Amino acid sequence: MLRAVPARQERLDEDQIGALRELTSSLVAAKPDAAGEYARFLGIKQRGLCLPEADLASRVDGATVLVTGGTGCIGSTLMAQLAAREPGRLISVSRGVTAGWPRQENAEYRYADVRDRRAIDELIAAVRPDLIFHVAAQRSPALAEVEVHRTVTTNVLGSRNVLTAAAAARVPQVVVASTGKALRPYSPEMYTASKRAAEWVATTVAAGGDMLCSASRFTHVIDNSIVYQRLQGWAEDDGRGVVRLHSSTIAFYVQSALESAQLLLLALLGAQRGEFRVHAITDLGWPVTLIDVAVGVLAHKGSRSPIYFSGYDPGYEEVPFPGLYDPATAGDVSPLLNAFETAAAVDSPCPMVDAFRLDMAPDQVAPKLLTALETVCERTEDADTVRHALDDLSWSVLDATLGAAARPALTRSAKLVVQHEHAMTPVHRRVMEAIKGHANAELSAAGDSPL
After folding, report:
1. What angle (nearest 5°) sits at the alpha carbon of residue 129, between those of residues 124 and 132?
2. Biggest alpha carbon distance in the chain?
3. Residue 317: what pLDDT?
4. Count of CB atoms situated within 10 Å of the CB of 32
5. Are 161 and 201 in contact (CB under 8 A)?
6. Per-residue pLDDT tens digits for 120-157
7. Which of 209, 273, 341, 380 is 20 to 30 A off residue 251, Cα-Cα?
C-alpha cells in the first residue's frame, strides 16, 4: 500500500483509489484480530479511577465551583462529577459553541470567552468561586496550525487571563487541564507549544502567591476523539471516502472522559502551596494501534473506503526527540512524564496516578516574551507573526525548564541524546545543545568534567 500510492498527495485519482481499495480489502481480510483491538479501543470509554470520596467531599461539598469550558466533552463530564458531590453553586462559563454534551439541571451556564480579559475578570470577581477548573482550550493539533492566533490567544493568553483573574479575586484554588504533549520541553508545533507555555504561566502563578494551582495531563480522549470521528466519517461515505492515516506504525495511548474528569478531581487534592504539581494516569494500558482501529471500523461498517498512508500533517510530530525518556525510569511512571519530570516525582493522592512538581528556573526573559506575544496578538492575526512570537517564548521556557532540572536527569539525558545526533533534525539538535549546555554548567559547578 505504501508503494502503490506515495504519501503527501492531496487528491487521488480513480486508478489510485481503485488500487488502494483492493489492497485495503486484502488487509481487512488478513487482520481478523483487528476487531479485538477495535473493541479494546471502544471499551476504554468505560474506564474510571478510584477517588478518595471523603477528601473530595470536604473540598467540594457546599463550595462555589466554576468550570471554564463546562459545555465540552471533558468539561461536561467534570460538571456531572462535581454535581454529584453537591457543591453549593456550580457554574460553567464557555463561548457557547459546543453542543451535544449533557448539562446539569441545577448548574448555571454563562457565556464568556477566556480570551476576553475584561469579561473573565468581571465574571470571576462577581462569582468569587472557591474553586476553578480551567478546561477551556483549543484542542486540535491540526487546527492549531491553521488557526494560530485563536489557538495562542485561547491556550496561552486565555489561561493567563483565568489564572491572573483568579489570583486577583483571591480564589483559593485553580486546577488546569493540560495535555500529555506538553511533556515535550520544546515544540515548534502550535498546539503543543501553546499548552507547554500555559503550564509555564501556571508555574509562575503558583510560585508567586497563596493560590493553590495544579494540573492534569490528558492523552487521547476517546469520547471526543478527532481520529475516531474522522474514521467514522470516511467509512460512512459509501466507499467514496479515503481513510487517510499518517503512518502504518502509529500507536497511541487513550483514556476516557470519565478518567479525565476524575483526574482533575485528584489534581484538586494533590495541590501544594507554592508549587505547581502536574498529575497523569500511571497505567494507560497498552497503546492502541491506529491501523487496527481503522481496519476495525471498516470491517464493522462493511465499508469499501480505501486506506491511504498520507504522511504526517502539520501539528503532528513524526519523529520524537530521543531524550524525552530515560530507560532507567520510564517504565515506572506515566508515559505522560518526561525524564526531567520523573526526577521531580512527588506523592500523589491516588495510587493510580503519578504526580510531579513542575519547576521552572527564575527567568527575566520569558515574562517579557509573554508580554511581546500579547502585544503581537493584539496587533495582528497573521499566523507567521504570531507563530514566531510563541516560538521565541517556547525557547525561553525550555531554558527555564532545563535550568530547574535535577542534575542527574540532565547529565543522563545529555549522554543519551548525543548517541542520536547524526539522525537529528535541526530543531532537535538545538534542543540537544540546550540540554548539553545546562548539563555542562552543572558539571562545571560541581568540578566534574564536561560532556
Report:
1. 85
2. 68
3. 84
4. 10
5. no
6. 999 999 999 999 999 999 999 999 999 999 999 999 99
7. 341
315 phi, psi to nearest 5 deg: 100, -10
What DSSP line would sit under 23-85, residue for residue?
A: HHHHHHHH-TTHHHHHHHHHHGGG------HHHHHHHHTT-EEEEETTTSHHHHHHHHHHHTT
Q: How far apart are CA 38 and CA 49, in angstroms?
A: 22
Whether the CB-CB separation of 39 and 85 falls below 8 Å is answered with: no
Identify residue 421 by its one-letter amino acid code.
E
Which helix (H) or strand (E) covers residue 111, if one does?
Answer: strand 108-111
Residue 196, φ and ψ in degrees, nearest 5: -65, -45
Coil, strand or helix at 215: strand
Low-confidence residues of the chain: pLDDT under 50: none
Which three cell numbers mark 187? 515544540
Whether 400 and 421 have beta carbons less than 8 Å apart is answered as no
What is the pTM for the complete model shown? Answer: 0.95
What are the structural domains, with CATH classification, of the chain? Answer: 1-362 (3.40.50.720)
- What pLDDT was estimated at residue 19? 95
So what's the pLDDT on residue 237?
Answer: 75
Contacts of 364 (CB under 8 A, 6+ apart): none
Rounded to whole angstroms, the Cα distance separating 449 from 447 reads 7
pLDDT in tens, 301-315: 999 999 999 999 888
- What digits encode the pLDDT tens for the residues 379-398? 999 999 999 999 999 999 99
Amino acid at 346: V
- Rounded CA-CA distance 203/215 in Å is 10
What is the C-alpha separation between 375 and 62, in angstroms, rounded?
40
Do 202 and 176 meet the contact criterion of CB atoms below 8 Å apart? yes
The answer to whether 94 and 118 have CB atoms below 8 angstroms apart is no
| Number of residues that make up the chain | 451
**Among 324, 229, 210, 228, which Cα is nearest to 275's?**
210
